[in-house]
Amino acid sequence: EVFTSLASMEKMLQAESNVSQQIREYIKAEIERLDALEAIAEEMEQHSSQALVSPEDHLANPVNSFLLVKRLTVDWNKIVNDYLVLENKVSSGCIHDTASVFPETIDLQGAALGLTRIQDVYHLDSETIASGSFTEQNTTEFTAGDCYEIGKQVYFQNDHYHSILWMEEALVRWEKESEKTAEKNVILDYLSFSYSHFGSLRKALNLTNDWLAIEPGHERAIANRRYYERIIAEADDAERQKLKGDNGAPVVDGKPHRFLTDYTGSKSYSDYEKLCRGEETHKRPFKHRLVCRYQRYHPIFYISPLKEEMLNFDPAIYVYHDVLTDSQNAIIKEVSRPKLHRSGVFSKTDADTGLSNFRTSQTAWHDDSTHPLIARLSQKASAISNLTLETVEHLQVLNYGIGGLYEPHWDFVQGEERNEFSESDRNRVATFICYLSELEAGGYTVYPTVGAAVVPRKNSCALWYNLMRNGTGDYRTYHAACPILYGYKWVANKWFHEGGQEFVRPCGLNSAE
Ligand SMILES: O=C(O)CCC(=O)C(=O)O
Ligand SMILES: [Fe+2]
Fold first, then answer.
1. Exposure b/e, 104-127, CB count within 10 A at least 16 = b
2. For residues 163 and 200, is the Cβ–Cβ distance under 8 A?
3. What pLDDT does 222 receive?
C-alpha cells in the first residue's frame, strides 16, 4: 500500500506528471494523423471533383484510368494501413465498406497489362506514356511511384521486358523528383533481377552495386553480386578459351526483348498490329474501285437512303454510316451500363478464372423487348443485310477497358464449339457491328488476312458474312478489335445465324462463293 508513507506517494506525483506528458504526446500524434488524413481527403476531393465534371473525358485517357485503379488499390491500402487500421476506424464503421466498388489486385494487374499492350501495338515507349505526350489533351503524368507500380505488376506476371521498361522510367523520374514517390533501392532490386533474367549480367551487376551503395549490408544484394561476378568471370574465362579454339561460351549479355509466342510472333499477328497503327499490310490492287454510294434497296431507305461504304470486295465488308440515331445510341448505352459484366470467349479462357486477356471488355445482352429503339435496330440490321431475324442473337453490347481489345478471331464457331448453337440456328452467318462511340485514337476493327481496317465512327455499322454460301467458315474474315489508345469504345453486335436464311442467302454454284 502507498497511503502509509508520504515519501512513497511522491512517486505518484511523478507518475501523474508522466501520464499527462504521454497524453500530450498522444494528442500530438493524433493531431498529426488527422492533419495527414485531412490532406488526403482534400486531395481526393480535388481529384474526384475535377474528374467528375466529365468522367468519360477523364477516363478516356489511359494514364488517368490506370491512376484511378492504382489510387483505389495500392494507395488506398496504404492509407488504411498507415492511418486507419490501427485506430480501428475501418471496422468501427467510420469508413464504410469500400470493397464492393473498389478495384482489386486483379484490376491493377489488368490495368498495367493494358498499358503494356498499348505500348507494344502503338510503338510507344514508357517515357511517352508516362509524360502523357502521346496525346495533346493530356494533363496527367506518372510519378516515379506510378511507373514503379506498373513495373512491379508486370514483373509478377513474369513479364521482365516491360518491367525493365517501366522500372527504367521510374529511375529517371526518381532522379528528378524533389518529393520522392518511390524507393530507389527497391527499384534497383527489381530492375537488376529483370536484367539478369535476360542474361544481361553486367547490367544486373552494375545495378546491384548501385543498390548496395544505398543499402551496403543488404544480404540478398551481396549474394546476388557474388553470383553475378562469378558467372561473368566464368563466361570471361570461356571467352578466353574460345579465343584459343574452344567455342562453348555461354551468352552473358543478352538484350531484353519482348516475349513472342508462335502466335504473337506470326505474320498474321504482326499484320494485326500494323493495321491497328494504320499501316498497310497487303497490296490491294482493286482498292481504288472501292466506292461509297447511296443505297435504296429496301423501302425504309426510299426517303433517307443508306450510306454504304465498301471496305473490301472479297470477302465483302461494308460499313454503313448514320445507321443509328443519337437517341438510339444513348438508349443502348443507358440500358447496358447496369448490366455490364466481363466478356467471355468460347475458347482460350484462362482455366483459373474462366476469363481471358484475349478479350478485355464487358458485355451486356438485350432482347428486342428491352426497348422499342433496340427492336428498331434489329429491323434495320435485317433490312441492310437482307437477312431474316428468325434466328438472330440478342443485341450484344460491349464496353472496352484500359487498352481494351479483342485479339484476332473468327465469329463463326468450329469443331467442338459448334455445340454452342442449336441444330436449327446453326452457325453465325453474318456479323453486324455498330459503333456507339468515336475514339480519339486506336480501337479499330481490323482484318489481318485481307489488310482492311474499320475506323470506328459513332452510329456507323459494319457488316460481313462469316460463312461461304455453302456454309463452311470463311477464314478470310479473321478480325480483331485493336487496343483502345485514347477514348471510350462501345460497340453493339448483332449476329445472324444460318437457320431461316435458306431462301434469302441460298447456296452458290461453287464452293468458293
Ligand atoms: O469491337 C470490335 O471492334 C470487334 C468486336 C468483335 O470482333 C466481336 O465482338 O466479335
Ligand atoms: Fe468478332
1. eeebbbbbbbbbbbbbbbbebebe
2. no
3. 97
Reduced to 3 states (helix: H, G, I; strand: E, B; else coil), residue 491 is strand
385: three-class secondary structure by DSSP: helix
Closest CA to 201 of 227, 237, 222, 183: 227
Distance, CA of 10 to chain centre: 69
Residues found in the chain = 513
* Apex 480 CA angle, 476 and 484, nearest 5: 155
What distance in Å separates the CA atoms of residue 95 and residue 98, rounded to the nearest whole number? Answer: 8
| Four-residue CA torsion sign, 456, 475, 310, 297 | negative
Instruction: Establish whether residue 319 lines the binding site of ligand 1, counting it when its CB lies within 6 angstroms of any ligand atom.
Output: no
Residue 180: band (very low, low, confident or very high) from pLDDT cuts 50, 70, 90:
very high
| Residue 348 pLDDT level (bands cut at 50, 70, 90) | very low
Nearest-CA residue for ligand 1 atom 9 is 493
CA of 476 relative to ligand 2 center, distance in Å: 13
Q: Which residues contact 51 (CB under 8 A, 6 or more apart)?
A: 58, 59, 64, 68
Cβ of 481 below 6 Å from ligand 1: yes
Whose cell is 504482326? That residue is 270
**C-beta of 195 in contact with ligand 1 (< 6 A):** no
Is the pLDDT confidence value at 479 over 80? Answer: yes
Residue 84, helix vs strand vs coil: helix
Residue located via cell numbers 500530450: 24
pLDDT digits (tens, 9 = 90+) for 208-226: 999 999 999 999 999 999 9
Q: How confident is the model at residue 241 (pLDDT cuts 50, 70, 90)?
A: confident
Torsional class of 478: left (φ above 0), alpha (ψ -120 to 50), beta (otherwise): beta
Nearest to 170 by CA among 190, 200, 156, 197: 190
C-alpha cell at 249: 561460351
What Rg, from alpha-carbon coordinates, does the chain have? 30
Q: Is 311 helix (H, G, I), strand (E, B) or coil?
A: strand
Reduced to 3 states (helix: H, G, I; strand: E, B; else coil), residue 144 is helix
What pLDDT, on the 0 to 100 scale, is given for residue 330?
96
Of 473, 471, 465, 387, residue with least CA distance to 431: 465
Predicted confidence band of residue 246 (pLDDT cuts 50, 70, 90): low
Neighbouring CB atoms inside 10 A of 482's CB total 31
Best mutation site among 406, 446, 484 for ligand 1, i.e. most ligand atoms within 8 A of its Cβ?
406
Q: Which atom of ligand 1 is nearest to the CA of 443?
A: 3
User: 459 and 322 in contact (C-beta within 8 Å)?
Assistant: yes
> Could you give phi then psi for residue 342, rounded to 5 degrees?
-55, 130
Report CA(211)–ligand 1 centroid distance (Å).
47
The reported pTM is: 0.90
Please tell me if the CB atom of residue 411 comes closer than 6 angstroms to any atom of ligand 1. Answer: yes
